[in-house]
Each structure stands twice: as structure tokens, then as C-alpha cells.
Queue: 2 jobs
Job 1
Amino acid sequence: MTVESPVQRVHLTAAAHTVVSRECGRSLDGNETGGILLGHLHDGMAEVRVAGDPGPTAVRQPDFFLRDLGHAQQLAHDAFTRDGSIWIGEWHTHLAAAPVPSERDLATYARLLADPDLGFEAIVSIIAVANPGWDRPAAYAWTCFGDQAVAVPLILSTDDYCPTAPEEHR
Ligand SMILES: [Zn+2]
């Protein structure tokens, strides 16, 4: 049975895009990097307002990344206080592999989706690769829900708010 993805497209604000572009440079050391994504889900769209940095205790390996949970929780707390943004997913780099969620990535997302305390309906995953250098990364968006991972369009904004967001989210 095919279930429609709760997220049909991902909109990255300029502020979040700036962080991803800058933080990708950490992968010059040969290890993946990344962070969490914070924002809103509405009308089949994920609006990413904040992209996190890895945090001091993140796991950074050539073929794996896992964010620093304490750092992520602090970012989430700050973003929620500021504009009600919630944790909607994560971004990370791939060094050798295609910009597709790996088996370990999918296992991480499955654990998040299965945790009732987190309340995820879907996980937004952005994977960045060098294009060809880390000064110009190329990013791809995925949405993971149930046991599926589906590629969705990634739309880069030139401002910090999504033009199609409902008024109450601004
Ligand atoms: Zn990965």
C-alpha cells in the first residue's frame, strides 16, 4: 500500500540555508557533519527556519553522523521560545555516498518516529554533498514516515520567512 507523504516539499529559509552552507565546510576534515532542523509543518510543506550546528559531542565519522542530543535540545528550546518552531528533522553531509539516506540514517529516523514522546509524524532529512567542493554544497531533501523515505523538492528562500506560511506562523 502506498501512503501519501505528510510532507510534499521542504522550504529552507535563507537563515537556515546560510548555516547549512557554512557548516558543510567542517566536512573538509573527512567526516560527516550536520545538525537538527527546526520549523513548522503545514499544508504538506516543511518550513525549515533553523538549521543547527553539530554540537560539541556529535558523532562525526566518514560515513556516519549523529547530532549532539543535549545541544539539539537546547537549540530546540531556544527556537520554540522564539517563534514556536519545533524539531522536524535533521541535515547532514555525505562524503562518498550518494545524497540518499543510508541504512544507518534510516535506522536513526525509525527510532525517532517510534518514540511517542517526540511525536514525529514525519522526519525531514536534508543530505548535502560537495558540488564539487564544500564551498558549494548541493542539498537534497527527503521525508521519512512509516517505513518509507521519499525524495521531495527542496526550495531555497531568499528571505527568512516562508511566503506561503499561514499568518499565525509569522
Ligand atoms: Zn547519512
Note: The beta strands are 9-12, 34-42, 45-51, 59-61, 64-66, 86-93, 123-129, 138-145, 148-152, 154-156.
Job 2
Amino acid sequence: MRVGLIGSGNMARAIARGWSDPVLCTDSGSGRAEALVDELGGDVADSNVALAEEADLVVLCHKPAQLEAVAAEIAGRAKAVASVLGATPIAALQAAYPDTPVFRLMPNTPVEVRRGIVCMAVGPGVERDLEHKVDALFARLGQVVRIDEKLLDVATGVMGVGPAYAALVVEAQVDAAVRLGLPAAQAAELASETLAGTAALLAARDYDTLAVRREVTSPGGSTARGLAALEAGGLRSAFQDAIDAVLGGARR
Ligand SMILES: NC(=O)c1ccc[n+]([C@@H]2O[C@H](COP(=O)([O-])OP(=O)(O)OC[C@H]3O[C@@H](n4cnc5c(N)ncnc54)[C@H](OP(=O)(O)O)[C@@H]3O)[C@@H](O)[C@H]2O)c1
């Protein structure tokens, strides 16, 4: 299946690097499409129209605000459309691309290293064969998770923004450790690999967060003191506020 990426920014680059195939892509003049082709091979299409005519699947990797403008160019030409646009429902994709199979996807940036999550909701009337092909294509980037479209924005508040949260948690731990003398690079490696290892352990424990926490937390011990300090610092309510902020922004 020939895939074309409209937009060559952060998300398109992460997806293309994950696939590591020669790309077919466009941008709006920044030169980022050329840079992606320099890195991975392939072609910058002469226009969005040329891309849509060549591709079997057009992946929309521009910003949500550009939905109508891009659709005005390529609707009727794109054979199938997969959108990674945040907060853009299937109904909006169908309105922009009538009579075209549409997929609503929400990937996160670890797709670049094939450890991503790609949440997927499929538009009505999409043929099974195409659905399987799109599923298999994105499964090369990590885990494809089918999700009720009504919950896709909430899922985004966990997995779409999650890499930024995880990076901030590592950064905060590094700052704390540096203050007490650990070299920054070493602290970053320790914190990052602990996150990765804990993710694997959580998967092995059926994502039972309490079990994993209890295994580290002796009564009255150092981890218990650390966790109490994080709770007193408002960690849980900060995450509540964060997801509200993410979803509030999405609705605007
Ligand atoms: N970043 C993430 O972690 C993430 C996660 C999930 C979903 N998303 C979604 O992915 C989409 C892109 O986000 P991003 O972070 O990659 O943004 P970005 O870095 O700003 O990239 C947007 C790309 O779209 C291109 N573009 C804009 N108008 C265009 C047009 N008319 N024709 C062709 N290309 C056009 C831009 O071209 P120029 O390079 O010329 O400016 C740029 O390459 C958004 O809809 C976002 O909701 C992002």
C-alpha cells in the first residue's frame, strides 16, 4: 500500500521514522518534507493533489485548523484517509472527505522507535480488507488499540500527551538528583530506564499499579516516605488538572 503523508512535522517524522520506508510527503513550504526525504529516501510530492493521486492511503499529519483547506484540494482524489489530527472527530473527517473511507488515529511519539500506542477508531462503511491493511500498517509502529471514538480525546489525555509528561517526570528526578551530586546524564539514564523497566513490569502484573508499588514499599520505609511526599506535593490532583486542561483545550 503506497502511503502519503500530508505534513512533515513532528508527528509525520516520528511515524515515517518508525516505518523506516521511503516516504511520499508534502509540507507547506518549510522544507521539512525535503529533510524527511533526505533522511529516509522517497519523494516530496509536487503538491497535495499529486500526493493524493499517487497514494492508496493519505495520512493527514497537518494541524486540525488546516482540515478544510487541505480537503478542498484533495477530497475526491484521496482513495482513503487516515487522520492523526487531535480533537477532530470522524464526523468532521467524513464531512471534509465525503464518500471516502476514513480512519481516526491518535499516535504518540514513541512510534518513532516502534514502541508507540496508536489509538484507532474506524469510520462507518470501511471495507474489512482496507481496515486490516491500515491496522497492520500502524501495528508496525507499536500497539494499535481500538477505542470507542467517544473516548478518544480522553485517551489522548493519557497517551498522546504522555511522552511529554514522562519526559517531565524524568527531568524533575534528574534535577532533584543533581542537587544531591549525581551527574545529570547518569541520573537521566537511571530515571529513564526505571520508567521503561517499570512499564514492562506493569505489563507483567496485568497493569496492577498497586501491586507494583507495594513490592517496593516497605511499611515505614524510604519509598513510603517518598510517595507520601509526592502525594503531599499534589501529584494526583496535578494529573487531574492536567487532563482537564488537555480536554478543555481540545474542545476550544
Ligand atoms: N506531536 C505529537 O505528539 C502529536 C501526537 C498525536 C497527534 N498529533 C497531531 O499531529 C498533527 C501534526 O502535529 P505536529 O506536532 O507534527 O505539527 P507540526 O510539527 O507543526 O507539523 C505540521 C505539518 O503540517 C504541514 N502543513 C501545514 N499545512 C499544510 C498544507 N496545506 N499542506 C501540506 N502540509 C501542510 C506543516 O508544513 P511546514 O513544515 O511547511 O510548516 C508541517 O510540516 C496535529 O494535527 C496534531 O494534533 C501530534
Note: Residues 6-12, 26-30, 32, 48, 61-64, 66, 69-70, 84-86, 106-109, 160 surround NAP (CB under 6 Å).
